[in-house]
Amino acid sequence: MVRQDGRPGHRGFGLLERETALEAAEEALDLLTGARPERVPAPRGAARAPHLVVHHGGAHPVPRPPAEGRPGGGAPAPGPRPVPLADPTVPVPRPPAEGTPAPAARPETPEATPERRRRGGILRYEAAPGLGRTALLAEIRRRAATRGCVVLAARGTGSSGSGPYATARHLLLTPPDAGIPEDGPGAAREQLDRSLARLAGHRPLVLVLDDAHAADPESLGWLTACAERAADLPVLIVLAHRAGALPEAAAGLVGRPAHRLDPLGPAALARLVRERVGTHADDVFCRSFRALTGGNPAEAVALAAAVRDHGLDPTADSARALRDLAAAVTATGLVARLESLGPTAVRLAWACAVLGTEAPPRLAGAVAGLGGETVAECARRLREARVLAEADGPDAPLAFGHPLLAATVYDAVPAATRVALHGQAAWCVAEAGLGSTATARHLLETHPEGDPWVVGHLRAAAREHLRDGAPEAAARSLARALREPPAADERDDVLAELDRATRLARDVDGAGNGTGPDRAAHRDAGHRLSPVLADRDRLARAADLLARKARPAAPPRDGSGDDGP
């Protein structure tokens, strides 16, 4: 239960020992909604202490007020705070002069406090898998909603996404073709910016992204740009990701303060065990439980469920049996449990892992080669085994109960089978009319076979990527198309498209440097593109390509020397 004041009563186990992380979220929401006046920065020369934090926009430390009930205002648990610096253009509120009547009290709602400047910011949480990132974000979403904020949430979906900016579009509930001109490079970002401004124009906006490490690079780049101006907008960006797993596209976010979620301590783990297994669980059993799970909440919950299912007595005498159960809920145990459900259930689970989160049953069945009734029966068995999450109905999407399960099942698929399933998924996605971008995502995981159908979808996907302002993704698709390879009569066109996409991405100084998404393909493009450019009255460009090919590759020069398309 959660009290109406927003403070936790009995909370989910994913929130155990997360008070510091939630306190940071409360402070960010205070600033976002204007519920608390901005703090005045300390002098530039002030000494830093554990209770001071430096905002990303400047070097002034910002003092945190003493916690109530803490003698002498002792410093709270350390951790970065999303407190922006006071704007020097905004006058600092002064106390009323003596004898001045106090103003009437106002309710603390976003609509009722316009005189307090609302400030956004960014909160970043990082943790190893299973330490409760998702539960923490769910609680932050709930608290933001009770304050009257507009709350939008999404999850990075890795290979299951639908191309560049897929995560950002999902986050802002923006359809891929809403207002994008056919020939407008960069229009996707413009569309997202317009959507963001519209959503934040009336009420404070909270954007919550889970599994940010699995988001597409273009969405991460857009969020990084948003973070640069978040403090000046009523927008709070909340990210959660695996520790140390943010890709290069999010380099601008890595340097910002982050809260690390640690494994549960002995007391919290013992509480979890006794509430899940029974209050009579003794101390030795609880200590063994923590030693076997490492304090990981997700693994502890799974092991507790296994203890209940097997009727294990939670005492010191059950230590050996507990170790056997723990082995069964690990990755190896999950694979064994999956295989025990039969080959058809295994095929459906593999198909879901290849397609990604929330796979439609019909599509998953087509990839697995199973009929509708067989899919329904296998899905039922997978849910009973806690591999798939519970669903609202027979047509509900198939989703794994936890991202860890999805990753484990995907990694368990034999390499050759995985490639074949991606090929089958590409064909099924195209037949379902989901577009070349979704199709190309799977084609990138297949082996070249000289198939014109593959080249056609990869080129079409590249055109969509360029239209969306994602030339890096276009270059990846075209480099893969070049390896297929294309027919002789279209090879020159693919090379020219690859050169254009590569130069737009500014990853290399032309197609001949060989440092882009596919080095071998770009070297090949450097040789082959020169006669193509010569035929098109681009002699200077052709000569430059050949000259650079004849000498050792040099680092990129930030696009200097590039001519127009």
UniProtKB/TrEMBL annotation:
Keyword Transport: no
InterPro entries reported for this sequence: P-loop_NTPase
Keywords on record: ATP-binding, Nucleotide-binding
TM region positions: none
Record bears the keyword Transmembrane: no
Biased composition (Low complexity): 99-112
Region (Disordered): 55-121, 506-565
Annotated Pro residues bias: 77-98
Superkingdom, natural source: Bacteria
Protein name: Uncharacterized protein
Organism of provenance: Streptomyces gulbargensis
